[in-house]
Amino acid sequence: MAKIIDGKAIAAQIKDECRAKVATLKEKGIGVTLAVIQVGNDPASSVYVGNKKKGCEYVGINSLAHELPEDTTEDKLLDLIGELNRRADVNGILVQLPLPGHINEDRVICAIDPRKDVDGFHPASVGALCIGQPGFVSCTPAGIIQLLVRSGIEIAGKECVVIGRSNIVGKPMALLLLRENGTVTVTHSRTKDLKAATGRADILIVAVGKPKMITREYVKEGATVIDVGIHRDANNKLCGDVDYDDVAPVCSAITPVPGGVGPMTIAMLLNNCVESAAQTI
Ligand code: NDP
């Protein structure tokens, strides 16, 4: 039976490490502050923002909430980001996505100072990752590397297959696995024979966005399977992109949903904020 990778426990470990680092920074007179901007009141976004605030509280990061009305103009949002970029006491700026349709997300992301880009979405951060320079890394894939490393799963030399090529998960995931010396294949909706590709994977990262799509036919016996998806099934129960009950018996390690990748995203966001503040020393 597969080892269940406990994302909740690993995220708690990282949060405790952040908490200790925040305390050390405070002793040196350095506070850590994250500005969170939400435009409109999409219920899912409000839940994510609430969880981020709770995470900040736990580790001792000050969170500045900017809750702006749905009809906020792009210029007004850009002005706010400019002001937060200039504030020496703000270490991280996070704009909760998606933004209302009248606002250009790319322009907003580009307006954030890369030194405060704790989501790792700015082109400068993505470019730095691509050419192996230091910079902030998108939190979900960064969290997946931590799940693997802290579970003692070696990446170097392994066949790593990523399903999905989104800017926030698939692409940075592939670059991070490459940085860890994995042999990386990226698959997507135009991949001709998905099962043939995934069947070679020692480490299979699934970010396809389709509930329970990945069954055991896609998985090599003994593989490690990381499930990024989050959905609600017909019974309103949370499930992932992987059919967990079908796949768990054939793999060596697997992340559950919930309690796998999900908790890591916030833990890595907090970690990025602490890193940002530490760089000001
Ligand atoms: P996207 O919808 O942006 O990307 C999905 C990717 O899957 C695309 O690259 C698409 O290919 C590919 N794809 C779709 N159908 C197929 C198919 N039949 N065969 C092969 N590839 C396919 O999703 P995200 O990357 O944003 O998210 C993926 C999942 O992870 C979602 O369930 C999301 O909710 C979840 N998520 C969870 C997070 C967490 O914290 N746990 C954080 C972020 C996301 P193409 O590019 O060709 O269209």
List low-pLDDT spans.
none
CATH homologous superfamily caption of the largest domain: NAD(P)-binding Rossmann-like Domain
- List SSEs in N-to-C order: EHEHEHEHHHEHEHEEEEHEH
Give the spatial strand order of the biggest sheet: 1-11-8-7-5-6
Largest sheet: 6 strands, parallel
Structure, briefly:
The chain is of the alpha/beta class and 281 residues long.
Could you describe the 3D structure shown?
This protein has 281 residues and is α/β, with parallel strands linked by helices. It folds into 2 domains: 31-118, 3-Layer(aba) Sandwich (Rossmann fold), CATH 3.40.50.10860; 139-261, NAD(P)-binding Rossmann-like Domain (Rossmann fold, 3-Layer(aba) Sandwich), CATH 3.40.50.720. The chain has 10 helices and 11 strands. The chain has helices at 7-27, 43-59, 74-86, 105-111, 123-130, 139-150, 170-179, 194-198, 244-247, 262-278, and strands spanning 3-4, 33-39, 62-68, 92-95, 159-163, 183-187, 203-206, 224-227, 231-232, 238-239, 253-254. Strands 1-11-8-7-5-6 form a 6-stranded parallel beta sheet. The longest helix is centred in the first third of the chain and has 21 residues, at 7-27. The protein is globular. The termini are far apart. The relative contact order is 0.17. The mean pLDDT is 97. The structure holds NADPH dihydro-nicotinamide-adenine-dinucleotide phosphate. NADPH dihydro-nicotinamide-adenine-dinucleotide phosphate binds at residues 140, 163-166, 168-170, 187-191, 194, 207-210, 228-230, 241, 261-262, 265.
